[in-house]
Design a protein that fits this description.
mainly alpha; 2 helices
């Protein structure tokens, strides 16, 4: 495993952790039955962060492919 693999792995782990948080918060939201805008905003922010991490993981692959072997 090289440094780029480690970076991708760490970004993937972070994305997975955020996904777990989103799922837990979504469950709390569904159980609460209330329209909690702050909770909805937090979930949306975490979803954007997860998407950004996924994009960064792809960018690491692009950077790696552009470097000489």
């Amino acid at each position: 495993m090289n440094s780029y693999d480690n970076i991708r792995h760490d970004l993937s782990d972070a994305s997975f952790s955020i996904t777990t948080a989103i799922e837990l918060l979504s469950g709390i939201d569904e159980d609460g039955g209330e329209n909690n805008q702050t909770l909805h905003d937090l979930i949306a922010r975490l979803e954007r962060l997860r998407n950004e991490l996924d994009d960064l993981r792809e960018q690491v692959t692009v950077v790696e492919s552009q470097l000489p072997a």
